[in-house]
Write a structure and sequence with these properties.
The structure is a single chain. The chain is mainly alpha-helical. The chain has three domains: 192 residues, MFS general substrate transporter like domains (Growth Hormone, Chain: A); 197 residues, MFS general substrate transporter like domains (Growth Hormone, Chain: A, Up-down Bundle); 80 residues, Winged helix-like DNA-binding domain superfamily/Winged helix DNA-binding domain (Arc Repressor Mutant, subunit A). It contains 20 helices and no strands. Helix 1 packs parallel to helix 6 and helix 6 runs antiparallel to helix 11. The protein is globular and about 75 Å long. The two termini are 35 Å apart. About 3% of the residues have low confidence.
Length: 471
């Protein structure tokens, strides 16, 4: 019975977010509902799209600082979805200032709703299944977006808008039925072990996401406009490679190192821009370019979504982690779009534009491997520290004593080591032991030397590997 309840809660969590995200994709961002509305009324679309994306960034980034409890997250998500629904109503009428107001409100409220879902992802999806939940919401929301796109382009933008709003309404019902009693479990968990300070991994993650999504922004400004004449094809095929890549990544065996798949995505992005430079602008050329580019986007997106899912385990505020992580995505798209607009405004030949874009892509791809390596090291470090927190004092002592050193630790060094394994910084250790921070640094260097390691992450990894080998 409990298993069935957990499965149902996960289902409603995924369904509610997928429908919310489908609304955002089809109406505010990549979809064709808003574009079709603007074209129907002969209105220039760029300013509208820009204000919506900026407002969405603000909502994602700020939500975690406003939402601190599961109950608050649920009602923030529901309230934001109601606001989005109301803000879409003016688009049934002629263009007016209410359109801009509606997009700003929808963008911000949508960002808050998306960030708030971090609580549901953490609560209703086990840690080892979060990559699948992330893949599911991205796959389902994009499939729904494709269906709405086709309707908006081939039938009526007003019907497309109605379908988007219907998605929002059904999504609200799915979120409404989810329970909040998990908040008690969360409080008990906090009493058992404190959540880790993951600011450094979060900063690295945001930099990683920002670097990747600059290429997405470039795509919108450099590649997409070249195939505008293929409206029928682009309306449904655009996201298909993205969905296929997500499906493949979702179902990879657990033994496969997903980080190595990043190199496949890198090669696909390079191939997309080279193909764009060499090929013509007909339907078959579009299929090649879009398949490579959107397939790579699917690989990258699920990779960093899954990292966010893992990071939720080490925080009491999942809305903050999810919101800030996704805001880096939006900021990357905005930056890439600005770069793309700058490049295209020079009115260079398309081949030269592609070369410039490819150069930017190559520079970003050089940055990714070391950035990814540092991020994974930090996350692994946090995994070990969380496991250490859950151990008894005897188990913690055995870990420290079970590893041979070149020279026996002094009493003070043992105290410093215990604080290191508690996840404390040098400043926190200095305060706890009433010594200077420079003294702590000296002890830390001595500990590293005696264990023959070069960093905290390596020290913790070595101690835990020794514990696993001896158990």
């Amino acid at each position: 019975m409990a298993q069935l309840k957990a499965t149902n809660n996960r289902f409603f969590s995924i369904a509610g977010f997928s429908l919310l995200f489908a609304y955002l994709l089809s109406f505010l961002f990549e979809g064709q509902v808003l574009y079709s509305m603007l074209a129907y009324n002969n209105v220039l679309g760029s300013p509208y799209i820009l204000v919506a994306i900026i407002a969405h960034f603000a909502g994602l980034f700020s939500c975690g600082f406003l939402v601190g409890l599961p109950r608050t997250a649920k009602y923030t998500m529901l309230g934001s979805m109601v606001i989005c629904l109301a803000a879409a109503v003016p688009f049934y009428f002629s263009p007016s200032p209410l359109w801009s107001v509606g997009l700003i409100i929808s963008g911000y409220a949508g960002g808050c709703a998306v960030a708030s879902w971090g609580y549901f992802l953490k609560t209703f999806t086990p840690k080892d299944q979060r990559i699948k939940s992330c893949a599911d919401v991205l796959i389902y929301s994009n499939i729904i977006m494709i269906a709405i796109n086709v309707v908006a382009i081939n039938l009526s933008p007003f019907i497309g808008l109605t379908l988007s709003i219907l998605c929002l309404a059904i999504g609200m019902v799915c979120i409404w039925v989810l329970p909040i009693e998990a908040e008690k479990d969360r409080r008990l968990e906090s009493e058992n072990h404190r959540c880790r300070d993951i600011n450094k991994p979060l900063i690295l993650l945001c930099l990683f996401v920002f670097v990747i999504t600059i290429n997405s922004g470039l795509m919108y400004q450099v590649i997409n406009p070249a195939f505008e004449h293929l409206t029928g094809l682009t309306s449904w095929y655009w996201a298909v490679p993205y969905i296929i890549a997500l499906f493949i990544m979702r179902n990879l065996p657990t033994r496969v190192n997903r980080a190595k798949i990043l190199y496949v995505g890198m090669a696909m992005i390079v191939g997309a821009f080279i193909s764009f430079m060499l090929l013509e602008r007909n339907a078959s050329d579009y299929l090649v370019v879009d398949t490579l580019m959107l397939g790579a986007c699917g690989i990258f997106d699920l990779f960093w979504w899954s990292i966010i899912g893992e990071m939720l385990e080490y925080t009491e505020n999942p809305a903050k982690i999810l919101g800030i992580g996704l805001s880096a995505n939006v900021l990357g798209v905005l930056s890439g779009s600005a770069l793309g607009m700058t490049i295209t405004s020079i009115q260079l030949p398309s081949a030269n534009v592609a070369v410039i874009a490819l150069t930017v892509v190559c520079v970003t791809l050089i940055i990714l491997p070391p950035l990814n390596q540092q991020l994974l090291i930090l996350l692994k470090n946090h995994t070990y520290l969380a496991a250490y927190d859950r151990m008894s004092e005897n188990q913690q002592t055995n870990i420290i004593l079970g590893m041979k050193t070149l020279e026996e630790l002094t009493v003070r060094e043992q105290e410093v080591l215990e604080h290191i394994l508690a996840g404390e910084s040098n400043r926190e250790i200095a305060r706890a032991l009433s010594i200077s921070e420079n003294t702590v640094k000296t002890h830390v260097r001595n500990i590293f030397s005696k264990y023959e390691v070069g960093s905290r992450a390596e020290l913790i990894s070595t101690l835990f590997r020794n514990q696993i080998a001896s158990s």
